[in-house]
Amino acid sequence: MKSPCYTSSSVKLTPAQAGVIDKLRKASRMAGHAYSTEKTYVDCAVRFLRWWQAQPVKGREAMAVPEARFKGYLSHLANNRKVSKVTQDQAFNALRFLFEKAMEVKLGDLSGIPRCRRNKRLPHIVEWSIAESIMEAMPYSPSVPVRLVCAVMLRCGLRINEALNLRWKDVNFKDGLITVRCGKGNKDRQAVLPCRLVPGLTRQMAYAKMLWETDVENGLPCEVPESLLRKYPHLENALQWRFIFPAPHACPHHPRSGKRVRWHLHAATMQGAVFKEVKKRGLEGVFRPHTFRHCFADRLRQQGVDMRIIQELLGHECLETTMIYTHPAVDAARSTIERINPVMLVPDCSPEPAVSPRRHYLLTAY
Question: Quick one: which of 61, 107, 112, 201 is 20 to 30 A from 276 by CA?
Fold first, then answer.
């Protein structure tokens, strides 16, 4: 029977279910999950509990076994909600953590639950000049330094959250290094700081220092990991722990401690500015903030940098992830194909009234 459709707020959680969500949060923090992982798990668990509460009595009787509920919800996501394969994987991991850690239910064999396999996809990569022009078109002000954050992503290969999470102590101008703290997989690494970024980062850090002096006078602390804050309470007012890209307004409620703190610039601000510029150029669905990182990796590959060095700079765990930027079969066959076809007609991609702007930029991007 088809599961009833509902919105995220159409069914309220019972007090018992709300207690399960609190247990899930505590278990996630005990496991050392990042806040983004905790937020994703809680969201998936809330949606699952609302789905279960909306089921008719007969449907609940048919899924009395936890494994049946597990399978029924994943089937609902795939068949009724039409979610992507990535979302199905997130729901699988979140539900397993919910049952085993929060609800303390011993799950049986889950091998019978069908798991979707992700298809191999190549990253969207545009020409370096196009990526630079998009970066230069971003707005810039010391309070909202979107252009500078894009420059750090493009010229250092950082992810959006890695760039926004940079603190004062993470930039080493003397050695030309940037230290990425708690990146993907909760791993640290180092990236090269190009000389071209030094003037912009110097001005931005001067603004961050001025804002720090104002915050200290007003008693507004900076966001610091709770484990460090318990041992060193003074770190929340230390300059070295201030974000280089601070948010223009204070965060009124810390999601974990509940305190009023100064956080970094929100990722949605970056994404909105990039999407607005990309829409003007007709590159929707092709270019997003993470594309800056792809262009950085492809630029290094074109310059002949060893793939293991690129792997270290990008922070990939395995070399296979980095190899998606290479095209060995295409590169090996290029000379043969050009020899077979000595005369190759290059289409004229100049903008004409008959060609839409979207088609023009898609042609010039590859």
Answer: 201
| Cβ-proximal residues to 50 (8 Å cutoff; 6+ apart), any chain | 6, 8, 10, 11, 13
Active-site residue flag, 290: yes
Interior/surface letters 308-338, b for 16+ CB within 10 angstroms, e for the rest? eebbebbbbeeeeebeebeeeeeeeeeeeee
Query: Which is higher by pLDDT, 197 or 109?
Result: 197
- Asked if residue 354 has pLDDT above 80, the reply is no
Q: Residue 266 catalytic?
A: no
Does the active-site annotation cover 249?
Answer: no
Between CA 265 and CA 170, with CA 250 as vertex, the angle to 5 degrees is 45
Catalytic residue among 41, 73, 325, 361: 325
Catalytic site includes residue 316:
yes
Catalytic annotation present for 6: no
pLDDT tens track for 120-172: 778 888 899 999 999 999 988 888 999 999 999 999 999 999 999 999 999 99
Instruction: Work out the number of other CB atoms within 10 angstroms of the CB of residue 270.
Output: 23
Q: Model's pTM, two decimal places?
A: 0.79
* Tokens read off for 271: 């994404």
